[in-house]
Amino acid sequence: MPLETDFPQGYEKRDFRVVGKRPVRPDGIDKVTGRARFGADTVAPGMLHGAILRSPHAHARIKSIDTAKAEALEGVKAVVTRDDFPIHDAVKEDRGLLDILVNCMAREKALYDGHAVAAVAATDKITARKALKLIEVEYEVLGHVIDEDLAMAPDAPILHDDLGYDYGKGKPSNVAGRTEIGHGDVDAGFAAADRVVERSFKTGAAHQGYIEPHACLANIGADGRGELWCCTQGHFMVRDTVTQLLGMDVSNLRVTASEIGGGFGGKTAVFIEPVAVALSRKAGKPVKIVMDRHEVFRATGPTASASLWVKVGAKADGTITAADALLKYQGGAFQGSPVDMGAMAAFACYNLENVRAVGYDIVTNRPKQAAYRAPGAPMAAFAVESVMTELADALGIDPIDFRLKNAARDHSKSSYGPTYNEIGLVETLEAAKATEHYNSPLGPNQGRGVACGFWFNFGGQTAVTLNVNLDGTAALSVGTPDIGGSRASMCAMAAEELGIDYDDIYAIIGDTASLGYNDVTDGSRATFASGLATIQAARQVKERMCARAARIWGIPEDAVKWEGGAAVPSGPNAGDHAPLSFRDIAKMAGETGGPIAGHHEISAEGAGPSFATHIVDAEIDRETGRIDVKRYTVVQDAGKAVHPAYVEGQFQGGAVQGIGWALNEEYIYSDKGVLENAGFLDYRVPVASDLPMIETVIVEKPNPGHPYGVRGVGETSIVPPMGAIANAVSAAAKVRATEIPMSPPRMLKLLRENESAAKAAE
Amino acid sequence: MVQVTLWGSLRDYTDGRNEVEVAGDNIYQILQNLGQAEPRLKPILEKGVTVSLDGQIYRQNLMQTVRPDSEVFILPKMAGG
Amino acid sequence: MRYEAPTTLDDAVGLLAAEQGVAKVLAGGTDLLVAIRSGRLEPDLVVDLKRIEEMTTVTPEDGGFRVGAAVPSVRLGQHEGLVAMWPGVVEAAGLIGSTQVQSRATLAGNLCNASPAADSVPAMVAAGAKASIVGPNGRRDVPVEDVPAGPGKLSLEKGEIVASILLPGKPERTGDAYLRFIPRTEMDIAVVGVGAVVTLGTDGTIEAARIVLGAVGPRVVVADKAAQALVGTKGDKAAMEALSQAVSAACTPIDDKRGTREYRIQVAGTLAKRTVAIALERAKG
Amino acid sequence: MTKTHVTTTINGDTVEYLCDPQETLLDVLRDRLGMTGSKEGCGTGDCGACTVTVDGEIVCSCLMLGAEAEGRTIGTIEGMAEGEMLHPLQRKFLDHAALQCGICTPGILVAARTLLERNPEPSETEVRYWLAGNLCRCTGYDKIVRAVMDAAEEMRGRNHAA
């Protein structure tokens, strides 16, 4: 029975037995009893504590670093600085790697407030902190720039002498790159429009805000081999990056992913791991580094802030004739803001003949941005969805009808070029329109907003192993760290394929020495890609079990098929044999040829984009500018919801992160370029009492690229909220909000200006 | 030959063209041949791009078969969160 | 750093007076521990007050209540007599931090942290509360508004401790209230805070008023002109408008991460109207 | 460095330890006693991940010195289940998928248990305000609130039956 296991065979319609139910997750008990071990929860005998000294300046030349006094302090076992991080060949040839190295430990210059400049390892935390105070760093403070628009100005302080979009043609600049997406003729399109709306927007830099600070424990032996335990979205990425940065053989470092206390993209990069390994190597002892919250805000994440301009034109009947956008994203002190993806995602919900999006990648004296849930898309969507609703209003068309008229559909050409396969945007719009929420009355000072969102979703390198145990249970080892309950989905898919009980499968995250390479858990890929590999591994197990049954029965392998969790004879020449269950064959594995396992290693592709439509009711206090989200509904296409409760959880979590970004979250800098709100007190993520219940509608339009129809769901949910809330707030306030966060001072100012303008017009 | 569409800003490296004809039976060959035909694109292709083949996004799987009538787009490198 | 937990006030004063280095008092610790952890403060001695009987009780006195310096906010909310008499003060104390912080945070600690944005201070000042200060030279009572000397600075002498706070008896037909403005619903520091106490005559006219503002100056602002705008009125719309304008005029705030100067001035006026409205309702009984 | 000797009760057991006067109760629990169920998310009392009970009241263990625990009664997440028997809140969190990454879960469970001891029938608003000091970044709180209310209902039913 040959099985094509290299590539997915596409969607197969079926009735599910386990998939689509809501079983308890395999790691659940550990997580409700405090037993689960996260990044900071492990120790090693003889362990030292590491701590990192960070620049207090936004931009400064580091003239000298004197570590003598720190090294002399009793209990200090190692101190590292830039001198301990030579630029190895692999780094020299790769600008991306070089940037990571420089971000982990500053070289000639400190590029932002919080940039690491030295680190110590000592026998306890208090001594380590004391030692940091003894390190003497001489800085020459330089001019700095924080804002993306100011960074593009001709007289802006320049961060890198060897960077600039026009580098080679002229002088260096803070513009690291330009991107352009689109097709058709936008000028002709605008000329054909009856109504055109254009606006400029700004968005603040939002941090991923995971509750678990970065933590790791490195243990490197005198032979140069070692182990690293850390909380990360991708331990294989950590292994490869750390070894390349430090000039080690990849095989000399085994990385184990701890339980991870949230990531949202922010843990797809390394920050402290190379430092811990360098300290451990130097001290000859295990070294643990745990960031504090202040460090998390100053030196990891956030996503880019943006300055945006959007123009859309339409015919009187609502048909869009042209759409244009200019996106300027600052991604902190190094190139690589997610503006490319912002430009591609900006108009991805619409079926447009004439479309263009131009983006600039800008560097500023802020921490190096890290991916944040659908990187680059939410800010672009905020601007685009604001303009779409304004245009719909101007034409007197219901905002959902306007979107339906112009929505991207099955096999339509996407705004970024390629032709879509089967997609579920229209279904989400129709479902949204039919909700009780959309048809309910509003109270005074309230407004309702809708917005759509899109995310690509990715597959990527994935390897899983499924080992059958003698008692008929199975152990599934996957290589994508489980951030939000993905192990439950893997177990469900394996049980579905094998025809055994969900509870008979236990999933773990394998370390880097136990599995083939796995890409990070990003791009909403874990349930899709590891799930795909799990299905294929399970099919391999079934194939092998059928072969064992054939041996037992003495019939050809192709005369056995798998049915209802058992091998059964099949075909005219198979003979009459009682079915052999999964458990029966598992028990006889040793006698029939040895252990039974399934593997699958794949570069999974075909994730299929996911679309969403959100509805929000917001109320504004006209005297204080404070906004209250009264009601919220997420409608999103999941393809197939493997574990609907965790799918809803992704919808709700993304929506609430979007609410935070829309209303209060932002990086606030002093005029010296120092981050002023580096803590949960003043970086205001939503608390429980800020929110209503988040209603959810799961749309299931099967992804043709997955046997169960699964699409990634994790990221799309953060794309529509800011636009939806801005539309609701603008309706309630009767003035268009163009800056997020729509914090009370900003909103009150807008209301007052609008009142003054109205009075002047009278 | 396969018609390959480049994302807008790559026009800067192809004398204003964003559609080019390239030979190749899979994504890898297409990228190799594109780099040879348009040497100024080579460093960008080597740094990493995403390929859309018949509407499907490929970040890595370069061995995917490309037919003469395939729809091929070269897009910026993508990552998720 | 040394940690001491004396059981008498005399011992506490003695420890603080004798310390040559930096000595700090620990009541709830919700500000102190953050300062130590961040490295902003490196005390040589921390004196925990929670083992001292006098500091941990609420006792009736002169028709009002004496609140020990180490009594956590959660206990104020559970004290029926206090809630009935000074609901505004109790609500203000109830706004300090989360439920968890409520188990620790104290009125005296909120006062001695000397932040202009402390929630309980405008409410206490409006109520006419007095701090009982004990030190090497004995005991003295001062109005609570005189304890902070400026942001982070106290008017206490070396060795002195705020031992308790006396909330006086409430006059008849008097109501108090405290409101603050924050961007979220919880967990923020006040952008503006307003404490109000009003006393009505038998005909419902406002006979006396106290309006106290937080987070709009280096110390709390006792807005006498704003109070005067109410006296002799029944709190009608015109009086409230005058109140609002007088409050805004009394504000001297700064721009910071929590709000702009302009915003604080505008919102203080609005908030004062809302606070006084509640106090009026309470005064009417 | 002079250390402080402390005798206290944790989850019903008498525990003795030596700690540095600067160490918080959270440091002591995690680093000295190996009780890593309480998490440090912020160290400033703003996230609630380190919530424990002290003499029956919930506190952030990062805002209390280890030395202050002398003679007190401490409760942590490790003491919430009785042997193999989960507390109804723990079960309901699993049933409702009220956790995603799980880092905030111990603190939320400890806080919610105290709420239900005080108020067996909390409204949605009361649950939300009681838990306002416990940040969760994954769930948007929806399923957490539902799980707490469902656990309350089950516990009320059980108490009536008893």
From TrEMBL, chain A:
Coiled coil: none annotated. SMART domains: Ald_Xan_dh_C. This is Xanthine dehydrogenase family protein molybdopterin-binding subunit. Residues 33-143 form the Aldehyde oxidase/xanthine dehydrogenase a/b hammerhead domain. The keyword Glycoprotein does not apply. GO terms for molecular function: iron ion binding; oxidoreductase activity. SUPFAM superfamilies: CO dehydrogenase molybdoprotein N-domain-like (SSF54665), Molybdenum cofactor-binding domain (SSF56003). Keywords: Molybdenum, Oxidoreductase. It holds the Pfam family MoCoBD_1.
Automatic annotation (TrEMBL), chain B:
Pfam families: ThiS. It comes from the Bacteria. This is MoaD/ThiS family protein.
From TrEMBL, chain C:
Gene3D superfamilies: 3.30.465.10, CO dehydrogenase flavoprotein, C-terminal domain, Uridine Diphospho-n-acetylenolpyruvylglucosamine Reductase, domain 2. Residues 1-172 form the FAD-binding PCMH-type domain. Coiled coil: none annotated. It comes from the Bacteria. GO terms for molecular function: FAD binding; oxidoreductase activity. Keywords: FAD, Flavoprotein, Oxidoreductase. The keyword Flavoprotein applies. InterPro entries: CO_DH_flav_C, CO_DH_flav_C_dom_sf, Diverse_Substr_Oxidored, FAD-bd_PCMH, FAD-bd_PCMH-like_sf, FAD-bd_PCMH_sub1, FAD-bd_PCMH_sub2, Mopterin_DH_FAD-bd. This is Xanthine dehydrogenase family protein subunit M. The lineage of its organism: Bacteria, Pseudomonadati, Pseudomonadota, Alphaproteobacteria, Rhodospirillales.
UniProtKB/TrEMBL annotation, chain D:
InterPro entries: 2Fe-2S-bd (IPR002888), 2Fe-2S-bd_dom_sf (IPR036884), 2Fe-2S_ferredoxin-like_sf (IPR036010), 2Fe-2S_ferredoxin-type (IPR001041), 2Fe2S_fd_BS (IPR006058), Beta-grasp_dom_sf (IPR012675), Diverse_Oxidoreductases (IPR051452). Residues 4-80 form the 2Fe-2S ferredoxin-type domain. The keyword Iron-sulfur applies. Gene3D superfamilies: 3.10.20.30, [2Fe-2S]-binding domain. One of its GO terms (molecular function) is oxidoreductase activity. The keyword Iron-sulfur applies. It comes from Marivibrio halodurans. This is (2Fe-2S)-binding protein. SUPFAM superfamilies: 2Fe-2S ferredoxin-like (SSF54292), CO dehydrogenase ISP C-domain like (SSF47741). PROSITE patterns: 2FE2S_FER_1, 2FE2S_FER_2. The lineage of its organism: Bacteria, Pseudomonadati, Pseudomonadota, Alphaproteobacteria, Rhodospirillales. Keywords: 2Fe-2S, Iron, Iron-sulfur, Metal-binding, Oxidoreductase. It holds the Pfam family Fer2_2.
